[in-house]
Amino acid sequence: MKRQFALSALVALALVCSLAPGRHRAALAAGGSTLSRPEDPVVMTGADVPSLAGIAPGDLVAFRYDSAWVQIPVQVDERDVKNFRSIYNNLAGWDITALQYTDAGTFTGPDSDPALDGNDEIAFMAKDAGGVPPASSEPAGVVFGSGVQLTITDPLVAGQTGYAYLFRQNGSLSPGAGQSYVSYTFNLLSGAYKTTYNLNANGGNPENSTVTTPNYMYHFGDRWQEDQMKISIGGATNVDILDRHKALFSPGYCVRSEDTFDGVVTSSPIDGAFGVNKRGPVRAIRSYIGANSGPLTEREHIFYAQRQDIRTYLRVHQISSVMDFFDYSPAASGMTYYNDLNTGGVAIDGVPETPVVGPIAWQMVTGVQGTVVQAASFVTNIPGFAHTSYYLDNATNPVTQCTGDGFAYGSSGAYVNPAPAQIPCTDPGLGCTNFMNTTNTLYYAAPGTSVASAQTLNSAAKTPLTYATQLWQGLPPSVGG
Fold this sequence. Notes:
By secondary structure, the protein is mainly β. It has helices at residues 9-17, 25-31, 84-87, 193-196, 258-262, 451-462, 477-480; strands spanning 41-45, 60-65, 69-72, 75-77, 79-83, 97-101, 121-125, 147-153, 161-168, 183-185, 200-201, 209-212, 216-220, 226-231, 242-248, 270-271, 273-279, 284-291, 294-303, 307-314, 322-328, 336-339, 342-347, 362-367, 370-380, 387-394, 408-416, 436-445, 466-472. Strand 13 and strand 14 (226-231) form a beta hairpin. The two termini are 36 Å apart.
């Protein structure tokens, strides 16, 4: 929950300067911020800054103060309530609406309000926050009096605070401040999306799409096919440790999988479409819908420089159960798998182990190949909802591997409502009111990340940074510069 309050510039500066010494000194020297969550974004909506409503998204710029004003990257992602029928180019008949990221490059189309409005998202990185400027100061290139001060706090660590400032620019600046934290190349092998994508596929829609940052690379071979992950941060070996991010009903049951969702392995055409493919200076966004008889089932990927958020919205008739897990490649051999029920870890080596199973809050694989920490959460109203963990490390005689290679290296993730329970209908197109939404946050980190660090990242993923807003206005240029 966001708390709104007002602080004068002098009081706020006194608060920052009074913080405890130690590991926060470097942050103070760098610009007055004591926040220590460099992997995490600050995400707000246009409704949080009503004084900037109605400006063009490209006119929003952000700054921190670090002995002088320093422009920082900021991104506006427009959203609108869209009918799923339109995302399918009006070829399918689901008159169901949801708030969606918009994209003129897909059939989702642009925002019906092209200006910054209340449901648009504004994102920047916590690491770019700074301190409090002199009360008379405004940066060059902005419209005088348009400023909003953001006081950013970490609910997990008392006293950690940083400041960022949003302004309307006068036409001389770019929101990216000359930087780009994420590169996303959507490469559909058939050609342009609107003219070549098969919305009713039998055989899939192959692609060679990549997300690249200074810390990791992620690859897609089709809409649901996530099949490469390379980590480069902190001297990691940058080898591909991912076989597949898999989706099954149960182990070895191949009737439904990420390949059948794509229509790669199917007895009949499968409906599917992209909602958005976009990149900006702060993050990249990829969203898509359609999973066999769940044509409204949707997944969003939000990519940051050192973090990925995977959000899945299950919208389907009653099903027996569902699994969502990562199966690593033979190149992951030698890494160690941990979760909050197995903090001692088990070796990923293709030799079976029997870690404790149960509901887990976080997972980690780490080795010279780098580290991936996953922090998953569920939002649902399903009566009797239950989930447990799944783990299989067997290179010789694994359970039937429905997709990817024939091995199971550290296959691990969530197993929801296994038999005898079932998942009731979650498809609003069928008039159902149950829902199940998941968020899995992946952090990419250096080799040798500790269990304590994984626990800290899990807490960070589930406790967003908070912020408060107040207007910021310096003296007119003719008076105070």
